[in-house]
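ARCHIVE CARD
CATEGORY: sequence design from structure
SOURCE FIELD: tokenized fold
FIELD CONTENT:
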């Protein structure tokens, strides 16, 4: 079951978001439209736009501006994917060729820029300065998170705190912007807005932690990308940081060398070390802690099916296999 199918009341709105996205990919430049449609329609759960819809509905919103607002969040997310794949030299995403593998780096970067600018065009139409402030700040922090991740790449001395700062910026910030902007649109109380902001932040962190675990557990078919990508790119994610902390000198040195040089030559022994040192369980536990914080934040909201679905999503985030 896809996340949007958890709540029948939100399904028609979710379909309206999909239609809105497709209808706003138009461009006078055919390649822009072709790449835009390819990446937007290549799968994905549309979790971030779903969070906009659920948050607005949980606060009693009755208008229709949550549809373009949800589309904005997806445009921004898609733009970051296009840029990320170029930075990481990725050739597989969601089980398909990445845009850069098919069309090259330059078109991918430029179409990512197009999607960012389209998001801000739609934002102007919504006309909320508070929402503009939240989303423009989020895009800035996301960019900083990506640069910090780049600085941490191939650095085996990256700390757990530094790693958490990266995922707060590059992943959790857009989750947070999705839920907080939905709350703003619904004109909810300051307490409810803060609750939904925190929910999005903690959910985003939990989501990324499980993503990093799956790099050592899932198959390429389950993940829709290459297993071991993080290690190949020399990314010191939490499973590796914990494994270095808990492993013996020989194990620690093997991981350190693999992070420094990147590549997959030592993938199998490192996967074994990650499991033996309890790094998988440790990361999953951290993810569960974040999911529990997300759920607890929702206590201030009135009971509704939308609140229940938000809770379900936090539970699904830590139990998913792909």
């Amino acid at each position: 079951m896809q996340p949007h199918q958890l709540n029948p009341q939100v399904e028609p709105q979710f379909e309206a978001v999909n239609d809105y996205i497709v209808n706003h990919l138009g461009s006078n430049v055919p390649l822009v439209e072709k790449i835009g449609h390819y990446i937007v329609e290549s799968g994905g759960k549309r979790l971030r736009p779903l969070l906009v819809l659920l948050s607005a509905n949980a606060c009693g919103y009755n208008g229709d501006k949550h549809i373009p607002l949800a589309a904005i969040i997806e445009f921004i997310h898609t733009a970051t994917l296009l840029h990320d794949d170029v930075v990481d030299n990725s050739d597989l995403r969601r089980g398909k060729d990445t845009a850069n593998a098919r069309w090259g780096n330059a078109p991918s970067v430029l179409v990512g820029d197009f999607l960012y600018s389209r998001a801000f065009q739609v934002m102007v139409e919504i006309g909320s300065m508070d929402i503009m402030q939240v989303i423009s700040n989020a895009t800035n922090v996301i960019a900083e998170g990506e640069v910090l991740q780049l600085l941490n790449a191939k650095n085996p001395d990256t700390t757990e705190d530094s790693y958490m700062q990266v995922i707060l910026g590059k992943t959790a910030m857009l989750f947070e912007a999705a839920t907080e902007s939905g709350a703003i649109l619904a004109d909810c109380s300051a307490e409810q807005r803060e609750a939904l902001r925190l929910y999005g932040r903690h959910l985003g962190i939990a989501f990324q932690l499980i993503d990093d675990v799956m790099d050592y557990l899932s198959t390429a078919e389950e993940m829709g990308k290459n297993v071991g990508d993080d290690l190949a790119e020399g990314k010191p994610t939490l499973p590796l940081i914990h494994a270095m902390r808990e492993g013996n000198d020989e194990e620690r040195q093997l991981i350190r060398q693999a992070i420094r040089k990147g590549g997959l030559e030592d993938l199998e022994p490192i996967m074994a070390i990650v499991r033996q040192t309890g790094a998988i369980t440790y990361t999953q536990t951290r993810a569960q802690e974040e999911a529990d914080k997300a759920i607890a934040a929702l206590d201030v909201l009135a009971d509704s099916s939308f609140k229940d679905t938000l809770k379900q999503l936090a539970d699904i985030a830590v139990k998913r296999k792909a």
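CARD ANNOTATION: Residues 3-316 form a domain with the Farnesyl Diphosphate Synthase fold (CATH 1.10.600.10). The first helix runs from residue 11 to 23.
SHELF: design records, drawer C
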